[in-house]
Amino acid sequence: MTSNASQPAGASGGPELVTVGETVTAVVRGVVPLTGLRDFFDGSFRALGETLARQQVTVTGPAFGFYREPPKETADLEVGFATDRPVRPEGDVVAGSLPATRVARLIHHGSFNGLGASWERLFAWTQEQGLKTGPGMWEVYLTEPTPDMDPSELRTELNVPVAE
After folding, report:
1. How far apart are CA 125 and CA 160, in angstroms?
2. pLDDT tens digit string along 78-102?
């Protein structure tokens, strides 16, 4: 399935359908005002790193943010990493999972500021294909951001579960 929709800046290639297996994760959960997302992510990754190191749990994939529903004034989300086994709850860090499901996926290239347009493109594509979305959606941060990097080098994988 392909789309004839024009590609906005920031998106690369077309959306695709992918089947993913269940993934064991270690996460920090929260309901966060959009203005506080950066601080929530930073604090969560710090806590996750410390807890995973203490428990000798191995990270098996890049960082992600799982949103229970599309963000509005607040975001109800989990921030974490795929791991080799469940983490023991410690502080704000708990065990979680990403579902085994079929997803519509799009890779966003560039700054996090452009993610909204790429999400809109992905949801429009699912509608064009006659697919029902939900529940949840997640971003996988394929490129780890650093303070001195060019934001155009960031790559973020967008995933939304779908059914026909």
Report:
1. 11
2. 999 999 999 999 999 999 999 999 9
